[in-house]
């Protein structure tokens, strides 16, 4: 009798793990950096390569870091949302142009609009790796102390902006 119950018990446990796994949202991959200081960086600016953007420049303010690329299809989906957010002036949006060609990135921003206060260039993706980028687009909410408070994996949607990002930004600005 036990020789039938043991395989049945193993099967039930495996089915339980499968059901739990299917219920998880792949867009909600936990980031080990949430609640920790954002990685320090000093990168060339996209529009003015002779200038740099550093992570320390934004200490004292709440800001968003949006990781994007001209070759990213999903970045086109979120771009109008970021353009409107930028126009609102609620929170500054900085770009991290990830593994892209400068000319392609500049052309893309000229074509679709530039929502970024400044966009920095990460041609090899090293800074992206330090931020734990899984793929573009990703957006980080960073507080006045330089601590990552939220990570949006995938495109920023109107819903994500209204339900998660902006309420958090307002709370952190308060």
TrEMBL record:
Gene Ontology biological process terms from the UniProt entry: cytochrome complex assembly
Compartment annotation: Cell envelope
Keywords: Cytochrome c-type biogenesis, Disulfide bond, Redox-active center
Domain Thioredoxin positions: 32-174
Cross-referenced PROSITE patterns: THIOREDOXIN_1 (PS00194), THIOREDOXIN_2 (PS51352)
Main location: other
Recorded GO MF terms: disulfide oxidoreductase activity
GO CC terms: outer membrane-bounded periplasmic space
Family: Belongs to the thioredoxin family. DsbE subfamily.
Protein name: Cytochrome c biogenesis protein CcmG, thiol:disulfide interchange protein DsbE
């Amino acid at each position: 009798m036990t020789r039938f119950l043991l395989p049945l018990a193993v099967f039930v446990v495996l089915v339980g793990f499968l059901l739990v796994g299917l219920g998880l949202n792949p867009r909600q991959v936990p980031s080990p950096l949430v609640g920790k200081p954002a990685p320090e960086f000093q990168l060339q600016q996209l529009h003015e390569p002779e200038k740099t953007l550093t992570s320390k420049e934004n200490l004292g303010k709440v800001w968003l870091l949006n990781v994007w690329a001209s070759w990213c299809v999903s970045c086109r989906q979120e771009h109008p949302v970021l353009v409107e957010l930028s126009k609102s002036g609620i929170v500054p949006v900085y770009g991290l142009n990830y593994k892209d060609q400068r000319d392609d990135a500049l052309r893309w921003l000229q074509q679709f609009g530039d929502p970024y206060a400044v966009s920095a260039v990460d041609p090899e993706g090293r800074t992206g790796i330090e931020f734990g980028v899984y793929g573009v687009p990703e957006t980080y909410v960073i507080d006045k102390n330089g601590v990552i408070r939220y990570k949006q994996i995938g495109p920023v949607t109107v819903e994500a902006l209204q339900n998660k990002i902006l309420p958090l930004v307002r709370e952190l600005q308060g």
